Amino acid sequence: MPIIKPRKKPILIRKYEALLTRIHGRHPKRNFIESDYRKYNAGYLGELATDYQLGFIDEKKFYILQDLKLTINNHKVQMDTLLLTKKCIILIETKNLNGHLIFEENKMTRNLNDKIEGFVNPLWQVQRQEYRMKQWFQQNYLRLLPIYSLIVISNPNTFFDTSKLPSHLSDKVIGIDALPWKIESIEKNIKNTLLNEADVRSYSKKLLLAHTPDDTNLLEKYDLLPDEVQKGVRCPKCNRLPLPKVKNTWACPNNCDNEKKSFIYTSLKDYALLFENKLTNQKCREFLLIPSRNTMTRILHSLPKTGKGNTTQYFLPIED
């Protein structure tokens, strides 16, 4: 299948992982941060399960964009999966939840271990996505295709009840094993072919160019000060920091088997994810606890840069 935008580990999750390696284990906000990280990571794992099921649809019919984020009328719209065909668009929202889910028009509740929790109804989430996608097509002067949306319950052990919903809404909520069949059924039941192959490729490229990567600043989100982020070179395997320098290089006291350059690269990535991907020699020295300007210059020399002398800025892309 043409996967125009493949799914990668979301930048937001990588930001959480960088933050959790660099705040103290007894930090008063750590439990909140870990809880949010687990929710986002569970969502990502559910999306990977959805991606597996997409391997069973007709690869000639569908162009796939995964983890697509658009800014439409100053609103940020995140779509787990978008399928583009000559006939329609299908939006897929994945929910990786366990327990007993009950869908109603105005809410969704979960019963887990006899504890009742309320959630924002994902049915209205996908309705908003449909509305914003229509706006995006109009703004880009593209022929509007029929837009369908599905909510996929990715945990096969989760029981979900849609009996309180009208049929046009209950049909949107499916278990993950039914996904390939549901997609093929939607596409097959649409009689009119609105685009040709060149149009579909053009539309998918426009969507890809419109993608806006996540820019969440976790320090601002959790009201953390820069000094609450532990500094130093970090071992990517055991997360030990700061690593000591031995014979002009860094070494992990736990004897982790890593290439020495991975210590520095991992730590520079931490800085880029938590602060900014524009690096200066001084800021990197302060963050990595490296006193020598010349040493830092040698470390940064292979990165793209702009400016000269003290005004030099290096750039480290955070999307792998």
Kindly list the characteristics that best describe this protein.
320 residues; 21% strand; alpha/beta; 4-stranded mixed β-sheet; 15 strands; 10 helices; 6-stranded mixed β-sheet
Task: Give the topology, please.
Elements lengths: L2 E3 L5 H12 L7 H24 L9 E10 L2 E10 L4 E7 L4 E4 L4 E5 L2 E5 L2 H18 L7 E7 L5 E3 L5 H4 L2 E3 L3 H10 L8 H14 L7 H4 L23 E2 L2 E2 L9 H15 L3 E2 L1 H8 L4 H8 L4 E2 L6 E3 L5
Parallel strand pairs: 1-2, 4-8, 5-9, 8-10
Antiparallel strand pairs: 2-3, 3-4, 5-6, 6-7, 11-12, 13-15, 14-15
Q: How would you describe the overall organization of this protein?
A:
The chain is built from ten helices and 15 strands. With 320 residues, the chain is an alpha/beta fold. Strands 1-2-3-4-8-10 form a six-stranded mixed beta sheet, sandwiched between helices. Strands 7-6-5-9 form a four-stranded mixed beta sheet, with no helix packed on it. α1 runs antiparallel to α2 (30-53). The longest helix is centred in the first third of the chain and has 24 residues, at 30-53.
Unreliable stretches (pLDDT < 50, length at least 5) are none
Count of DSSP E strands? 15
How are strands sequenced across the largest beta sheet?
A: 1-2-3-4-8-10
User: Portion of residues in helices?
Assistant: 25-40%
Order of helices and strands: EHHEEEEEEHEEHEHHHEEHEHHEE
Distance between the termini: 22 Å
- Beta-strand portion reads 15-25%
**Biggest pleated sheet:** 6 strands, mixed
Mean pLDDT: 93
Overall 3D form: globular
Count of helix runs: 10
Rg (C-alpha, Å): 23 Å
Structural class: alpha/beta
